[in-house]
Amino acid sequence: MLARGARVGLGGQWVVERLIGRGAFGDVFCATHAVSGAASAVKAEAVASRRLLREDQAYGMIHSASGGAAAGFPRVHWCGEGEGVGGARLRLLVLQRLGPSLEEARRAFGGALPVRLLARLGRDMLRRLEWVHAQGLVHCDVKPGNLLWPPPCRRGIVGSARFSSLPNHALAPLGPRDDVEALGYTLAFLGTGSLPWANAAPPSRAAEAARKAAAPAAPPAEEEAQRQARQAEKRRRFERIGEIKAAAAEDEIAAGLPGEFAELLRAARALQQGDTPDYEALRQLLLLPEARAATAAGASVGAQGGARARRVAIAQRRPAPPIRRRRLEARRGPRFVP
């Protein structure tokens, strides 16, 4: 066991922050580099065990075979011995810290990952296992807690939960695909005025500011308890939004709009991390509803113009109303016949 604030590595380069995992053979801690502040993970086990030595060798083989850094595998910063709580000797392995585990992602999605995301993850994991097996290695402990999102590691959603992408809810790395998916939700909201998860959204910042202004001052301890309760409620709301969003089909989200808006969402959700969206194809896709709306508007204007032209023609063919002779004579005065 390592104490919080303990320094490990050559010259104490990494500072231990907290315990983040515990297994049958050792503990895993979150740590930061004392100079750069980069996040790392520290594995600790009894010095008599040689598991971390074998793990260090396995990562070396995997990265060497790729000619550098193999995608999807953490880099080893340092491996050696250190002192734990009570003077116990520990074997330590300092690794690049990857993102949250797939088990954490599963919980963020309300207990089950959506099929589309699950299939993409399965393909990625098969590629990783293929590379491991090609080096003559076997993992032997494949489970959700040992499969991680790649960095950067985030503690929460970036941006607005209402419009954020599904990978954003799962704390996955963000990229162009996430902006396009968020744009799809934005267009659906602008066209319909609501989203299926609208009722689960937390209060706006303006509403929260108004609540704080109206609430009487509370003792520091009570205020802290209230703050933590609000944060817990906010996390529950975010989780609920993610659950509803993952379960909602694209046609349901864009209900009432032309089908191309749902198709844009489908295209965005199908993108994988690192994919570049086909912006031109998406623009062409949205030309279709615009063209149909313009055609419909032109037909309506043409129908109105044709009806007006018919009314004018009928009015022009209609004979003038008869004028009584004596009224005409009264205006013109008496007529003299020579």
From TrEMBL:
Keywords: ATP-binding, Nucleotide-binding. InterPro entries: CK1_Ser-Thr_kinase, Kinase-like_dom_sf, Prot_kinase_dom, Protein_kinase_ATP_BS. SUPFAM superfamilies: Protein kinase-like (PK-like). Residues 206-236, 297-338 are annotated as: Disordered. GO terms for molecular function: ATP binding; protein kinase activity. Residues 206-216 have a biased composition (Low complexity). ATP binds at residue 43. Residues 14-288 form the Protein kinase domain. This is Protein kinase domain-containing protein. It comes from Emiliania huxleyi (strain CCMP1516).
